[in-house]
Amino acid sequence: MSGQGPEWSGMAKLVAQIYAKSDAEPFREPVDWKSLGLFDYPQIIKKPMDLGQVKRKIETGKYGAIHDAAEDVRLIWKNCMQYNADGSDFFILAQNMSKKFEDKFAKLQKDLDSKSAANGKGNSSEPTLEEKRTFAKLLYKISKEELGKVIVDLDAKCSTALTKNSAEDEVEINVDHISPTVFHELMNFVKSCADSGGGGGGRKKKSAGSRP
Predict the structure, then answer these.
(1) Which is it for the CA torsion 53, 55, 57, 63, positive or negative?
(2) Which of 10, 144, 191, 194 has its CA 20 to 30 A from that of 23?
C-alpha cells in the first residue's frame, strides 16, 4: 500500500510544493471545459488529470509506486501541451512546470537511493546492459514460485516495470523500467535462486494471480 515510508512522504511533499506554486493555479483542478467553451477538449484529451487528483490519490494510497504518481503529474503537463498550441502561454507554462517537477523528482529519487544505500538496503548504481541481460536469462532458470515472488516485489516497489495482459492473464517484466535499487535487490535474489538450483522452467511471463 502506498502512503507509507520516506518515499511517499517525500513524494507528497514534492506534489504539495508544485501545487503551491502560483504558476500551478491552472493545473490544480480539472479543466472546466464547459464553462470555458472548450467543447473539443474531451475529444483531444482522453485522460484528464490535475494536481488535486494526484494529491488525493497519494493521500488515499491509490498508487503502487511513486513512479506511478510521477506519471500522472507528467500527464498534466502533456495534456496541456497537447491541447494548446506550441509557443502559446499555456504551452510554455506547462513546459516550465514540467522542468521544475522533473528537477525535484530527480532529486527525490537521488535522496531515496542514497538513504537506501547508506542503510545497506541496496545498490543505487544504474545497471549495465550486461547485468540486464543476465537478469533476463536468470528469470528462465528459476522456479515459477520464485518468479512469482519477483513479480510480487515488482508490483509493490516498481509497478511501472510490469505490463499486465488481462486477456491472457499474464504479466510481462520490462527490465528497462526497473529502478536501480530494486533491480539490484532482485538480481541478488534470482542469482541466489539460480545458484541453489531453483526449479527451472521459469518464464518471463507469469499469471497475474500472483499479485499480493
Answers:
(1) positive
(2) 10
